[in-house]
Amino acid sequence: MHDLSDEFQRANEAQFFLKSISNPSRLLILCALMKTPGLSNSEIATLCGLSVSSTSQYLVKMIDIGILERKKTGKEAHYSIKDERVIEVLTILKKIF
Hints:
Blueprint (H helix, E strand, L loop, with lengths): L3 H18 L2 H12 L3 E2 H8 L3 H13 L3 E6 L2 E6 L2 H13 L1
Helix pairs in contact: 2-3, 3-4
């Protein structure tokens, strides 16, 4: 039997994780990166119908919380999903919705 405090901790972690991807624009960005890893900010913005500025803010937020990673090549940065749980959850969401 699991300790109730362990269950509570896992519930808090799940809530934080789900909250971090629950914004529709963030979901669009994550879906784009799941389909095509290594996109630039402007490529993501175009694919998702967002402004470059808004996209940049979403990307920074998701990097800060550990969902995405950024790799710089020259002056351009390319983004990909760092947390494999994101891919697992998005795959399930695509089946449901």
